[in-house]
Design brief:
Elements lengths: L1 H14 L3 H15 L6 H24 L4 H11 L2 H30 L6 H24 L8 H17 L5 H11 L7 H29 L1
Protein backbone atom coordinates (compact mmCIF):
# COMPACT_ATOMS: atom_id res chain seq x y z
CA UNK A 1 0.00 0.00 0.00
CA UNK A 2 2.83 2.41 0.83
CA UNK A 3 4.43 1.74 -2.54
CA UNK A 4 1.10 2.36 -4.27
CA UNK A 5 0.60 5.68 -2.47
CA UNK A 6 4.18 6.67 -3.30
CA UNK A 7 3.54 5.86 -6.97
CA UNK A 8 0.31 7.87 -7.09
CA UNK A 9 1.89 10.78 -5.23
CA UNK A 10 4.74 10.84 -7.77
CA UNK A 11 2.35 10.68 -10.72
CA UNK A 12 0.33 13.57 -9.29
CA UNK A 13 3.52 15.54 -8.69
CA UNK A 14 4.80 15.03 -12.22
CA UNK A 15 1.44 15.85 -13.77
CA UNK A 16 1.38 19.21 -11.91
CA UNK A 17 -2.39 18.94 -11.54
CA UNK A 18 -1.97 19.86 -7.90
CA UNK A 19 -0.91 23.39 -8.82
CA UNK A 20 -4.36 24.81 -9.58
CA UNK A 21 -6.04 23.75 -6.29
CA UNK A 22 -2.89 24.70 -4.38
CA UNK A 23 -2.85 28.21 -5.87
CA UNK A 24 -6.60 28.50 -5.30
CA UNK A 25 -6.15 27.60 -1.63
CA UNK A 26 -3.34 30.10 -1.07
CA UNK A 27 -5.29 32.78 -2.97
CA UNK A 28 -8.40 32.20 -0.87
CA UNK A 29 -6.36 32.43 2.32
CA UNK A 30 -4.77 35.67 1.16
CA UNK A 31 -8.15 37.23 0.34
CA UNK A 32 -10.11 35.91 3.32
CA UNK A 33 -7.50 36.41 6.07
CA UNK A 34 -5.57 39.48 4.91
CA UNK A 35 -5.29 42.11 7.67
CA UNK A 36 -7.52 39.96 9.89
CA UNK A 37 -7.15 40.45 13.63
CA UNK A 38 -10.20 38.60 14.96
CA UNK A 39 -10.33 35.25 16.77
CA UNK A 40 -8.28 32.55 15.07
CA UNK A 41 -11.21 30.13 15.26
CA UNK A 42 -13.16 32.20 12.72
CA UNK A 43 -10.05 32.62 10.58
CA UNK A 44 -9.48 28.87 10.53
CA UNK A 45 -13.11 28.51 9.52
CA UNK A 46 -12.28 30.40 6.32
CA UNK A 47 -9.24 28.17 5.76
CA UNK A 48 -11.39 25.07 6.28
CA UNK A 49 -13.90 26.24 3.69
CA UNK A 50 -11.08 26.62 1.19
CA UNK A 51 -9.80 23.16 2.13
CA UNK A 52 -13.21 21.65 1.36
CA UNK A 53 -13.20 22.96 -2.22
CA UNK A 54 -9.55 22.14 -2.87
CA UNK A 55 -9.75 18.58 -1.52
CA UNK A 56 -12.64 17.83 -3.89
CA UNK A 57 -10.59 19.19 -6.79
CA UNK A 58 -7.45 17.30 -5.80
CA UNK A 59 -9.28 13.99 -5.43
CA UNK A 60 -11.09 14.24 -8.77
CA UNK A 61 -7.85 15.26 -10.49
CA UNK A 62 -5.90 12.42 -8.90
CA UNK A 63 -8.39 9.68 -9.81
CA UNK A 64 -8.83 11.14 -13.29
CA UNK A 65 -5.11 11.04 -14.12
CA UNK A 66 -5.15 7.56 -15.62
CA UNK A 67 -7.16 6.25 -18.54
CA UNK A 68 -9.10 2.99 -18.21
CA UNK A 69 -6.32 0.84 -19.69
CA UNK A 70 -3.61 2.28 -17.45
CA UNK A 71 -5.83 1.95 -14.39
CA UNK A 72 -6.51 -1.71 -15.22
CA UNK A 73 -2.76 -2.34 -15.25
CA UNK A 74 -2.42 -0.63 -11.85
CA UNK A 75 -5.29 -2.73 -10.46
CA UNK A 76 -3.64 -5.95 -11.63
CA UNK A 77 -0.31 -4.86 -10.16
CA UNK A 78 -1.87 -3.78 -6.84
CA UNK A 79 -4.00 -6.92 -6.57
CA UNK A 80 -7.51 -5.43 -6.30
CA UNK A 81 -9.72 -2.47 -7.17
CA UNK A 82 -10.11 -1.69 -3.47
CA UNK A 83 -6.37 -1.35 -2.89
CA UNK A 84 -6.11 1.12 -5.76
CA UNK A 85 -9.09 3.11 -4.47
CA UNK A 86 -7.65 3.19 -0.95
CA UNK A 87 -4.31 4.23 -2.42
CA UNK A 88 -6.02 7.11 -4.22
CA UNK A 89 -7.79 8.21 -1.03
CA UNK A 90 -4.56 7.96 0.97
CA UNK A 91 -2.69 9.98 -1.65
CA UNK A 92 -5.39 12.68 -1.66
CA UNK A 93 -5.21 12.86 2.14
CA UNK A 94 -1.43 13.09 1.95
CA UNK A 95 -1.69 16.02 -0.47
CA UNK A 96 -4.01 17.77 1.98
CA UNK A 97 -1.39 17.72 4.76
CA UNK A 98 0.80 20.54 3.33
CA UNK A 99 -2.39 22.50 2.66
CA UNK A 100 -3.33 22.03 6.32
CA UNK A 101 0.07 23.35 7.39
CA UNK A 102 -0.37 26.33 5.06
CA UNK A 103 -3.84 26.93 6.47
CA UNK A 104 -2.36 27.10 9.98
CA UNK A 105 0.61 29.34 9.17
CA UNK A 106 -0.47 31.72 6.40
CA UNK A 107 -3.27 33.43 8.40
CA UNK A 108 -0.62 34.32 10.98
CA UNK A 109 1.46 35.96 8.23
CA UNK A 110 -1.42 37.72 6.49
CA UNK A 111 -3.13 38.95 9.66
CA UNK A 112 -2.42 39.81 13.28
CA UNK A 113 -3.26 37.08 15.79
CA UNK A 114 -2.25 35.63 19.12
CA UNK A 115 -1.44 31.96 18.48
CA UNK A 116 -1.87 29.18 21.06
CA UNK A 117 -1.60 25.40 21.06
CA UNK A 118 -5.41 25.17 21.24
CA UNK A 119 -5.59 27.26 18.05
CA UNK A 120 -3.20 24.88 16.29
CA UNK A 121 -5.16 21.79 17.33
CA UNK A 122 -8.51 23.35 16.44
CA UNK A 123 -7.25 24.53 13.06
CA UNK A 124 -5.89 21.07 12.27
CA UNK A 125 -9.10 19.31 13.33
CA UNK A 126 -11.25 21.73 11.35
CA UNK A 127 -9.24 21.50 8.15
CA UNK A 128 -9.02 17.71 8.29
CA UNK A 129 -12.79 17.53 8.82
CA UNK A 130 -13.30 19.51 5.63
CA UNK A 131 -10.52 17.62 3.82
CA UNK A 132 -12.07 14.21 4.57
CA UNK A 133 -15.52 15.47 3.55
CA UNK A 134 -14.07 16.94 0.36
CA UNK A 135 -12.24 13.71 -0.48
CA UNK A 136 -15.51 11.81 0.02
CA UNK A 137 -17.24 14.11 -2.46
CA UNK A 138 -14.33 13.83 -4.88
CA UNK A 139 -14.45 10.02 -4.77
CA UNK A 140 -18.20 9.95 -5.42
CA UNK A 141 -17.83 12.38 -8.33
CA UNK A 142 -14.73 10.80 -9.81
CA UNK A 143 -14.17 9.04 -13.10
CA UNK A 144 -14.80 5.73 -11.38
CA UNK A 145 -18.53 6.49 -11.39
CA UNK A 146 -18.88 9.17 -14.08
CA UNK A 147 -17.46 8.91 -17.59
CA UNK A 148 -18.79 12.34 -18.52
CA UNK A 149 -16.96 14.90 -16.44
CA UNK A 150 -19.62 17.55 -16.92
CA UNK A 151 -22.07 15.46 -14.90
CA UNK A 152 -19.39 14.77 -12.30
CA UNK A 153 -18.64 18.49 -11.90
CA UNK A 154 -22.33 19.32 -11.58
CA UNK A 155 -22.82 16.69 -8.86
CA UNK A 156 -19.70 17.91 -7.06
CA UNK A 157 -21.08 21.45 -6.97
CA UNK A 158 -24.45 20.21 -5.69
CA UNK A 159 -22.81 18.15 -2.94
CA UNK A 160 -20.56 21.04 -1.96
CA UNK A 161 -23.58 23.31 -1.56
CA UNK A 162 -25.38 20.58 0.37
CA UNK A 163 -22.62 20.06 2.94
CA UNK A 164 -22.17 23.80 3.34
CA UNK A 165 -25.86 24.68 3.70
CA UNK A 166 -27.43 21.61 5.35
CA UNK A 167 -27.93 23.09 8.81
CA UNK A 168 -27.45 20.68 11.66
CA UNK A 169 -26.93 17.73 9.28
CA UNK A 170 -23.58 18.19 7.62
CA UNK A 171 -20.47 18.13 9.87
CA UNK A 172 -19.02 20.91 7.71
CA UNK A 173 -22.02 23.18 8.24
CA UNK A 174 -21.96 22.59 12.00
CA UNK A 175 -18.20 23.10 12.10
CA UNK A 176 -18.19 26.40 10.22
CA UNK A 177 -21.05 27.72 12.33
CA UNK A 178 -19.20 26.83 15.54
CA UNK A 179 -15.97 28.42 14.34
CA UNK A 180 -17.64 31.68 13.33
CA UNK A 181 -19.26 32.08 16.75
CA UNK A 182 -16.33 30.97 18.93
CA UNK A 183 -14.15 33.32 20.94
CA UNK A 184 -11.89 30.68 22.52
CA UNK A 185 -10.47 27.78 20.49
CA UNK A 186 -10.13 25.57 23.56
CA UNK A 187 -13.92 25.48 23.97
CA UNK A 188 -14.37 23.75 20.60
CA UNK A 189 -11.67 21.08 20.69
CA UNK A 190 -13.97 18.29 21.90
CA UNK A 191 -16.92 19.01 19.58
CA UNK A 192 -14.62 19.48 16.59
CA UNK A 193 -12.94 16.13 17.29
CA UNK A 194 -16.41 14.52 17.15
CA UNK A 195 -17.09 16.22 13.81
CA UNK A 196 -13.73 14.96 12.53
CA UNK A 197 -14.73 11.41 13.49
CA UNK A 198 -18.06 11.85 11.69
CA UNK A 199 -16.32 13.11 8.54
CA UNK A 200 -14.04 10.07 8.69
CA UNK A 201 -17.15 7.89 8.71
CA UNK A 202 -18.57 9.84 5.77
CA UNK A 203 -15.35 9.22 3.84
CA UNK A 204 -15.41 5.49 4.66
CA UNK A 205 -19.03 5.28 3.48
CA UNK A 206 -18.21 7.10 0.24
CA UNK A 207 -15.29 4.76 -0.43
CA UNK A 208 -17.43 1.67 0.23
CA UNK A 209 -20.22 2.93 -2.05
CA UNK A 210 -17.79 3.86 -4.84
CA UNK A 211 -16.06 0.48 -4.57
CA UNK A 212 -19.35 -1.44 -4.76
CA UNK A 213 -20.68 0.52 -7.74
CA UNK A 214 -17.42 0.62 -9.72
CA UNK A 215 -16.76 -3.12 -9.31
CA UNK A 216 -20.31 -3.93 -10.40
CA UNK A 217 -19.85 -1.80 -13.52
CA UNK A 218 -16.44 -3.23 -14.46
Amino acid sequence: MIALVRYMFTVMLLSQRYLAPLLLFVGLLAVLTSSDSGPLAATYGSASGGMLVCSVWLTMALIGLEDQTHRSVVVVTAGSHLRVLLGSVGTAALWCLPLTAAGLVLPLLFGSHTFTLADAVLGTEAQLTCAFTGIAIGVLCSRLLFRRQGYALLLALILLLAVLLAKGVSPVNVLLGDLQNASDSADLLGSTAVLLAISTGVLATAVAATQAISVRRS
